[in-house]
Amino acid sequence: MSDTINLYTLSELKRQIAVKLRFPIIGKPDCFKLSEVLLNEGYGSVSVSTLYRLFINYKGTIPYRHTLDILANYTGYLCWADFIDNLEIKKNNYSLIQPREVSSSLIFHCMASEAYNPLTSFFESIEVSEYKYKIKVALEVYDSLLSIEKPELFFLQFNKNKFVKQYVLEDAFDPAFRVKNYAYAFKLYEKDLDIDNSLMDIQDYVFSQSVLFRHYFLSGNSNYAFSIGTKIYKQTPVISSNLDAIFIFPNIRFRAYKIWFYQLIGASKNTIEDYVLELLDYCKNRYNELTSVEKKIILHSLAEVFCYSNIDTKYHLILKTIFKQEFLAIPIFLFEKPLQKSLPYFEANGLLHYRPVH
Questions:
Q1: What is the pTM of this model?
Q2: Cα–Cα–Cα angle for 176, 330, 82, rounded to 5 degrees
Q3: pLDDT in tens, 57-87
């Protein structure tokens, strides 16, 4: 038994459980919630202390096989042995846990030497590949972007490339902007957009400008944030019906960040609170038609804006109450805590599962 659990298998088990739970296991309350979920959903009983020793304070003590079978079953496998067998296959094919040593990556060498033709051919060749493999490639591109000297040259070359746009810059978007000159990639989105006639161009416009606005606002660059905010909320705004026709992530970001823009321009308290109530009504009216993932995206986007603005905390409570069902899926004490403590539990950005901000 001892040869079937090590730091790699334990890390992957913890990661897969966190993906299904939709929040990371970082403390005893998380272990308590996992124990509750396992029992209530019929997987079996695993004590909080066992989960804590395994995932938080691991010192080499191996749980009973029955415990590991329950945890493996929760992540979608028949038993622990099935989990291990599948893990070896994934490890050889497209493990997503740790960044590769990029210096040995062909993608890195092509990017570093500005050999773009082979990359173009490669990106085209994987168009029919399964989603997990595309994400694996996108992560390898992301890791390489962190290491090369001039990532802006890559962005310029591939700003219209279908794979790079969808998988590298959208699905693997980094809200922490850790890549050098990362903002340049999203400034390129504006080129040749026809937002009067193309819904896809509207989505590109809303996505790119919203993430830029967020980055500049949260990093304290008020001048750039003001410039982008003025453009997207005053000069070239997008009507509500068009927002609702695009993906929920750019839609709700665009709507939510308007609160920050109101703060930047010194809007009155009444103006801001009226808009906050409008957003909360929007959530109430759309709640029943949303998927669980969409609810999480909306909740996190609004909660982040509420936490980094000066609006009254009574609106925090209203937001939590609208999404009370979503709070049942995380450690229960968090509903009574300040909204900011809940943010990590509702983070919907895919890249942060694989490349967390330390």
A1: 0.86
A2: 90
A3: 998 888 999 999 999 999 999 999 999 988 8
